[in-house]
Amino acid sequence: MLVFLSVGVAGVAASMVEKPASVIASAQPLDIMWVMMATCLVFMMQIGFLMIEAGAGRSKNAISVAFRNVIDLMICAVVFVFVGFAVMFGESAWGLIGLGGGAATIANLTPAAAAFLLFNTAFCATAATILSGATAERLSLRAFAPTVFFIALILYPIFGHWVWGSALNPENKPLLASLGFYDFAGATVVHSIGAWCALAAVIIVGPREGRYPKVGAGVRMLNGHSKILSGLGALFLIIGWFGFNGGSTFAFSGNVPTVLLNTLVAAACATIVSGLMNYRRFAHFHPDRLFTAIIAGLVAVTASANILPLWGAALIGGSGAFFCSLANRMLVRRGVDDVVGAVASHGIAGAWGSIAFVFFAPEASLPLGSMWAQLGVQCVGVGVAFVWSFGLSWLWFKGLNAVQPIRVSAEEERAGLNLTDHGVSAGLDRVSSSVKELTVGGADLSLRIDIEPGDESYELATNFNKLMAQLEAKEIARRHQDDSVRRREEQVRLADEAQAKQMQQDFERERLIVAEISDFITRAADGQLGDRLSIEDKTGALAEICDGVNRLIDGLSGSIGSIARSASDINAACESLAGVSDDLKQRSASQIDAVQSVTFKLSTMADAAQKSSEMAEDALTIAQETREVSDDVQDGVSKIEKAIRDIEQSAGAIAPIVEMIESIAFKTNLLAVNAAVEAARAGAAGASFAVVAHEVRGLA
After folding, report:
1. pTM of the complete model
2. Is the pLDDT of residue 338 over 50?
3. d(CA 164, CA 561)
4. Cα–Cα dist 229/426, whole Å
5. If you write DSSP's letter for every residue of 643-658 in order, what string do you get?
6. Which residues contact 61 (CB under 8 A, 6 or more apart)?
7. Burial level of 465, CB count in 10 A (0-12/13-18/19+)?
């Protein structure tokens, strides 16, 4: 860069000794006036580009786009005038670069040379401004401004020298011009050079955030904020292009009306072709695509508007729009995010127009006089333009990116370059950012948008402020309601915790009571019937159980005592019966002995007559005693019967006790079920309830 700067400075310092030649040599005042008028029209193209680019982008970046369209013109006005012009039109060194001197210097410029310089400065600005639209909304300003300097100093003037380097000095033999490459008004020199530089930029900087959400999700349309602004810009470009193509004649000749007519027809046919293509594909006319097609038609016809017949201009304009549309689709599928379609409308359409005119222009009007020879040279020139501009720009942006990222940060991109680059925002920006904050829940509902009456978004902002006021009031009411709900929930939570704690204490106490009852029953089962359960500190079912157990033990104690007494009586009766039986046995034995003695004595009746009488009396006595014994046995049997009846009565007394035990078991079982249910309701806090339920179930 320093080398080129020094070359340019040398050109500026050189004296203007040679006679201005070629296009300005025979310039008349009318020609100069026409060139100056055309220059003004070309500068109006800058307004058209500004409008299209600003309208195609989102409002949060519109101010940034407008600013860049202004500063690229100002940078070009300095760099190209003082250095780039000499590099492009100075004395040629090996046909590659102008080294200044002659008519390329700015010292002592003639009116014709000054007009030529102004005209070409507008062309340089046009090449530079293509970058602004393609990389809108994410290329940093610190990368954009140096790149415009790079385009005006190196990229545009050096390639321009290869094609137009002999415009002021016929002795120059520029590289492509020497081969016969033809570009009437800059379809390749201006538009393709700017487009290929923009292509390198958009590839390296990447697509806008949200343009390609994720793989397989398709492409998201990021619609511009003002189609009306873009449409107005397209009309400005058509008017400006009259100067762009018409002024390239450098003379107010009879060919000017033909050039202007060809320019208009090409734009019109491009619009029709694009409209038909879009309606066939989308069933509607997309404004942005139509505006891009207009530019494509204008660019395509720029290469040869002075030599084309009217039908040729129509075909080139329409076909330029066709290839522009195809190229845009391809770039989108490749993930290239070009906000205004500049690469396709300027680069592809410019390349097509630089080649296709060979088939439509009269062969005699071709510089080489041969269609096929001219076709080969045109293809070479278009290829060299791509390699030069894209290749050098790729290295340029890679170098810039290595020093400092050329893309703005994600936060800056979301906020918009209006705010981050310039500290200002359009009314719609403020509304948009406020709505965005509101949607993510980070908005301060007490803030309002301050917009002066007459602002384009005044009514929208006013309604938005009313909405924010309503939202704030509802938010305050909601917060109060939430606070009340939270307080109630806290009270309920504390009450639940207290209830759970009380229930836990109750169940712990009940568990101890159940354990006490279980231990008491165990002792009673072991025969310890003297104790009783206390019911003073017990309530509900447990009190009933304790009372029932006490009554059961009382009943069991009485029944056991009655049974014991009955058993004692039975035992005594049995003992008495045993004594009578022994006595009867003894007397029976004595009777047997007596009978045996009687039998013996009867055998000796004669000897015992007297004794028989005595024995009869003894037998009578024994019979009487035997009857008495039988009476005693009868008394013993009566006593046994009485004891049995007493036992039956005791058994009758035991039956209610058994029924009471069954009732107590049933109630205890119910208590176990209730304890299990409460344990389930209490969750983790009811673990102790489950233990009580288990103990009560065991007791049941």
Report:
1. 0.63
2. yes
3. 141
4. 15
5. HHHHHHHHHHHHHHHH
6. 136, 137, 416, 417, 418
7. middle
